[in-house]
Design a protein that fits this description.
alpha/beta; eight-stranded mixed beta barrel; five-stranded antiparallel β-sheet; 22 helices; 22 strands; about 50% helix; binds ligand C2E; binds magnesium ion
């Protein structure tokens, strides 16, 4: 019972008692007054009248108060009704499900949203207990904790899985409040909840996208690294070993370039599927990016076992991929690193496998290589050299040597090629093959090439001043630099600073640099050509050129790779290749230049085949500018 009602009763009781008192007294007094009217003194009569009047006032006041009170109560009830009507409207139109139970946990109200979310109608749940909706996903401890929080704080919020009428279980975000009456007694529980299955679904989708490669559906690098870390922890605990294989498709770029990215993507997808087939269960396969895949084989500690796995993959890849009217062949290379023999951390294992892969690629591709101590030493040497190379640039330890280029028909020297050397304080003269690849990996190549270019142009200006009639100075440009837009700027700057006639400068780019990204190459070559410099393709015959592309390049010269010159004039294959290259160059209006000529008969064979220019030890080795002999 509420306090206000009790007040009303109290006031009514007072009113009744006072009324009875007044009536009794009035009766007594009146009777007394009529019976003994003469016996009463005037003073006493006044007292009686005052008394009666006083009682009347009291009764009047309490009556007014009672009426006031009743009136206010009526007003309040009116306001409450208004408030309740509003609450009911909100209760019914809210998107969140609402369920109210009495203190015994029996459902007394549900709203429309409740019915929409759960699928139950009101009459199916009123009088029932909410455990009707239990999904079975939470244990007893969970519900105990909910009620403990409710008892302690009066409120609980959290995620809870319940079951719809259809039987489907789904997640809710639910807030339960304990409602107490004015005396602090528990009267009801109100649960407000929203269906968060859509949010959960997108959360799961997001988590999936963050950890998988969308093209192949395989785990991505993030998930793979995580799995490797977990596998290493488990392997360490169980004293087992595992192998990590990095796989990389060979010449995948040429498929992308030649057939387009859509075909490239389809092929990658099929490669992923074939790898899943070869590897079977118990092995984690991931696409780490581009055409690189990672394999984690747990329980595989033996070198032989890992090698066999890699060999199996390589062999299965040899079978053609047939799709959409295409029949494509592609090979794969693999690098293997073993735990715990090669590395103890996931990061190190991945790095070692990468070094091994690099080795497999250098060994001619379509094979696998293992990470060994020797490889580590090699990597360390590379790191040291990179540090030293920086110092070499600062301390002017680089040198430019020049090798003569001769006109095969007249025998006259017509140009030179600038070749960089490193005058190492301890190791002596270091050839470029030992430091150019490192400079390319560390990015130092940009500075080195810019420096060589400047030296060579300056030297050429000096030779011109000395009256030497040279048609060109050739400078090598790294493939790394070739893709960069700044190259054009750099060349223009050097030409401007040194004052060299652009027609006297020839830039050599390797065939593989051009074919790495033919569209970028084409644009770059056109821009360089606009400067007025000549362009040559170096090491021609080794870079899988597409003839169609070659035709579009604004290039004036092909340099036959020395590998094909070495077998001349006897090796049938070399003869055939050299003849084709010469015919090709001439048909496209390009000059042909053979490098690596070590014998007179090689020079005369090339001349006979109409090759115009020659370079090699037969004519002269690369030497410092001062040591060049002029014929
Ligand atoms: P490349 O541009 O094809 O240069 C020709 C290489 O063949 C030079 O090696 C040269 O010394 C060598 N050579 C010339 N004639 C003969 C011969 O008759 N027999 C043999 N066996 N070899 C001969 P080098 O100087 O060791 O340079 C190797 C490569 O390093 C160059 O090949 C070029 O690709 C690169 N390189 C050299 N200097 C630079 C540079 O300044 N920048 C860049 N990015 N690369 C450079
Ligand atoms: Mg060259
Ligand atoms: Mg070359």
């Amino acid at each position: 019972m509420s306090v206000s009602v009790r007040d009303a009763l109290r006031m009514a009781a007072l009113y009744v008692v006072l009324s009875i008192l007044w009536l009794t007294l009035a009766e007594v007094v009146l009777r007394g007054m009529t019976e003994n009217s003469l016996a009463l003194t005037v003073g006493r009569q006044i007292n009686v009248v005052v008394w009666v009047l006083f009682s009347a006032v009291l009764i009047y006041v309490s009556r007014v108060r009672l009426l006031n009170f009743i009136g206010r109560g009526a007003r309040l009830r009116c306001e409450d009704r208004e408030r309740l009507r509003m609450a009911a409207a909100v209760f019914d139109s809210t998107l969140e499900g609402v369920l109210v139970t009495d203190r015994h946990g029996l459902i007394v109200h549900v709203n429309r949203a409740f019915m929409r979310i759960t699928g139950y109608q009101q009459d199916e749940v009123i009088g029932q207990r909410p455990n009707k909706f239990k999904s079975g996903r939470h244990g007893l401890a969970f519900y105990q904790q909910v009620f403990a929080t409710l008892a302690e704080k009066g409120e609980w919020s959290g995620e809870i899985w319940n079951r719809r009428k259809s039987g489907e279980i789904y997640p809710q975000w639910q807030t339960i409040c304990a409602i107490r009456d004015d005396e602090g007694e528990l009267s009801h529980y109100v649960a407000v909840f929203s269906d968060i299955s859509a949010i959960k679904h997108s959360e799961q989708e997001l988590a999936y996208l963050a950890h998988h490669d969308p093209l192949t559906g395989l785990p991505n690098r993030l998930l793979f690294t995580d799995r490797v870390e977990q596998a290493l922890a488990a392997a360490q605990a169980n004293k087992r070993g595992c192998a990590l294989l990095l796989l990389d498709l060979d010449h995948f770029q040429s498929i992308n370039d030649g057939l387009g990215h859509t075909i490239g993507d389809q092929l990658l997808k099929l490669v992923g599927e074939r790898l899943v087939e070869v590897l079977g269960g118990g092995v984690t396969l991931a696409r780490l990016g581009g055409d690189e895949f990672g394999v984690l084989a747990e329980n595989c500690q033996q070198v032989g076992q890992a090698g066999k796995l890699a060999q199996g993959i390589i062999e299965r890849m040899r079978e053609p991929f047939v799709f959409d009217g295409h029949r494509l062949f592609i090979s794969i290379s693999a690098g293997i690193s073993l735990f715990p023999d090669d590395a103890l951390s996931a990061e190190q294992l991945l790095r070692n496998a990468d070094s091994a892969l690099y080795k497999a690629k250098s060994n001619g591709r379509a094979c696998y290589a293992l990470y060994t101590e020797e490889l580590t030493a090699h990597a360390q040497h590379r790191v040291e050299t990179a540090g030293e190379l920086r110092r070499a640039l600062e301390q002017d330890e680089l040198r430019v040597f020049y090798q003569p280029v001769h006109d095969l028909a007249t025998g006259r020297q017509v140009g030179v090629e600038a070749l960089v050397r490193w005058q190492h304080p301890l190791r002596g003269l270091v050839p470029p093959g030992e430091f150019i690849p490192i400079a390319e990996r560390t990015g130092l190549i940009a500075e080195i090439d810019a420096w060589v270019l400047r030296q060579a142009c300056r030297q050429m200006v000096q030779w011109q001043g000395d009256g030497l009639q040279l048609a060109f100075v050739a400078v090598n440009i790294s493939s790394r630099l070739f893709g960069q837009h700044e190259l054009y700027q750099q060349v223009a700057e050097v030409l401007h600073d040194t004052g060299l006639d652009p027609a006297l400068l020839e830039l050599e780019v390797t065939e593989s640099a051009v074919m790495e990204d033919p569209e970028v190459a084409l644009e770059q070559l056109h821009r360089l050509r606009e400067l007025g410099v000549a362009l040559a393709i170096d090491d021609f015959g080794t870079g899988y050129s597409s003839l169609l592309r070659l035709k579009r390049l604004p290039v004036q010269k092909l340099k036959i790779d020395q590998g094909f010159v070495a077998g001349l004039p006897h090796d049938e294959d070399d003869i055939a290749i050299v003849r084709v290259i010469i015919a090709l160059a001439r048909s496209m209006g390009m000059q042909v230049h053979a490098e690596g000529i070590e014998q007179a008969e090689q020079a005369s064979f090339l001349l006979q085949e109409l090759c115009q220019l020659g370079q090699g030890y037969w004519f002269g080795r690369p030497v410092p500018a001062a040591d060049l002999r002029w014929s």
